[in-house]
């Protein structure tokens, strides 16, 4: 929690649940990432947190943007981004969205299938396109491997087809999965993409960009490697495979940029046991999986908690959200412990929750309104 | 799909994704349920679909309401419900919500813990309270067992305590899990609750209501027992265990009341394969798990699809939503098949999606707006 967030919580005690996010920390993260990967161009993954204060700060820093939808493109443009600084990175797009983006001046689009490529040829003629390939996601706490990307052989054919369709076969991309905790995941993926890159060059395709995606992790309950470690591993692999002929490098950080800038402030609604002698207490918060904490599904992302009683004697807990749905349980197996003195009405903070929280919030499940947001 | 929904879709071709719901069908379902369980008082589980046209129709029919939050209570009151017809059924409530409900005239509250009971004693003095007990959820496609309810021995102590605290220890409740496909789940739960009921009577507690919860299923991809089968099983078990001294019977149907009244109309955004010879196609829709179809988590609820090409040759598919998130995959293992001629831009209908869809929708994940709603 940054001092600014801490001060805001202390001075304002805002109604819970809410996110408080320090935009200065976003800027620091942007600079740290630039320092770790000076040759890469940063396309902020807007979906991580599309709030205007975040986008505006990043526009001011010269960031580019990776948008998942026409609505996200609109948000970037509204924040002052030039359309040339926006990549339409979802490989699954309605053709109406492609047309709208193209009309607005967006000229970079992702794809991973022939049908998508033909949409792009029709509705974004001449645009730069890049093909997403399937790579391993081992080490990612929020893996992405199965849904996006295609096999190498298919990517090769599609990149050749892109040129034939009048598009600019600009590059290749991959994604090693979100909250990726292993630097070698990038190394393996770079080796794979480099093979195809060379192959395409040999086939006369003027491919010239590699998009390394995002995945750079945030510290939640456990330590993760430093961003400099990822930078070193990535540049080592790029140099090994591309030598002096480095392509343009694009990265799409989302979680890394905003995750540790934000804190969710919540209230304990109930602490109870299912039987008198049950050693495990149930702690119910006023935010749960449908209030924004969607990434606790399968207990994948394990947030760290702060309570007013930290340091006192603790005991095992199951942590759940406020709705009448059993799937709205955050942590049951991950061995969380909280102070025995924790009680109804206590405020707790969920640390490093600046990414992938606000937009996930259900519009009204069980009648609860989405969490409030404060940018400081 | 009811004729009215069908006609609306044909005549208006509303922008997708959207829910179209036939409010007359809600009324039919209410009447079917009344016929199947004539001795039960119906408290509609508002969380299933809190839209004003649904609530207003049910108010007109004399329904009572099971609310999960103060916001849902407000929605019932706005729809014309008397406060005495509302039960605050969430066992996890902020004390401020209890106060608001009590001030508005609500006098029936659920609990399953001592802490909650003490909140009720403070903020809803003299109110009718009922204790939720833990029961098995075998047979439920959307189980609820773990998070709510307490063990019998604890329930017994808490019901006695309720009287001592000046509350009215009105009844006992259980929930056999949502989309419960086995009638014997109710029979087993009724046997369990009856034991405690008798025990409490013997202890001088004037308990006089049994709340059987909801769970009554809707036909999705597979057949389910008829509501009359549930009615017969429930009344058989009630008579077996309570004889002529039947308590007041409360039921809390949600899914059953609105599920088959609604249809989600969606668009195919992309059909693709990950490799040329892959037998499985990926079908991406403009609605997914974060657009409202939250109950497809773990492929729990298996919706039936209609396409413009039904009857043509089909093949295996993985069905996914439109967001850049791999968890936004609806069905990968449930052996769905769709026509080979299905293509981008085709409209598809997801049948019986009137329950537990609209409110789950994320407010803006990936920039996508929540689905539109049409009540006809």
TrEMBL record, chains A, B:
Where does the record place the Orn/DAP/Arg decarboxylase 2 N-terminal domain? 24-258
As given in the record, the signal peptide range reads none
Which enzyme type, at the first EC level? lyase
| The keyword Cell division is assigned to this record | no
Q: What CDD domains does the record tag this protein with?
A: PLPDE_III_ODC
Catalytic activity line of the entry = L-ornithine + H(+) = putrescine + CO2
Enzyme Commission number(s) of this protein: 4.1.1.17
Instruction: Please indicate if the UniProt record lists Lyase as a keyword.
Output: yes
Name the pathway it acts in.
Answer: Amine and polyamine biosynthesis; putrescine biosynthesis via L-ornithine pathway; putrescine from L-ornithine: step 1/1
Which metal ions or organic cofactors does this protein require, according to UniProt? pyridoxal 5'-phosphate
This protein's source sits in the domain of life called Bacteria
The protein's UniProt keywords, in alphabetical order, are: Lyase, Pyridoxal phosphate
Name the family. Answer: Belongs to the Orn/Lys/Arg decarboxylase class-II family.
What is this protein's name? ornithine decarboxylase
Q: What's the source species for this entry?
A: Belnapia arida
